[in-house]
Specification:
68 residues, alpha+beta, three-stranded antiparallel beta sheet, two-stranded antiparallel sheet, globular
Length: 68
């Protein structure tokens, strides 16, 4: 399953362990199953990061409902 993040970012959810907001800076961390590969999506501020994170959660919820 693929998830589109923005205009150019696409990730394969089959390899993702977790997606979370970074506590130290305005970014979203995508952690892969091997736990050593972490991708950070940086944002100019916390408001933009929180808006993007909410959109990701909403899209994942919609996908879950679609497959039920």
């Amino acid at each position: 399953m693929w998830l589109k993040l923005g205009d150019t970012e696409v990730i394969n959810l089959d390899y993702i362990s977790s997606i979370k907001k970074s506590p130290n800076k305005p970014s979203i961390e995508i952690i892969y199953h091997d736990l050593t590969n972490v991708k950070a999506l940086n944002f100019p501020g916390e408001e933009e990061r929180d808006k993007a994170f909410s959109a990701i959660l909403e899209n994942l919820s919609r996908m879950r409902l679609f497959f039920q």
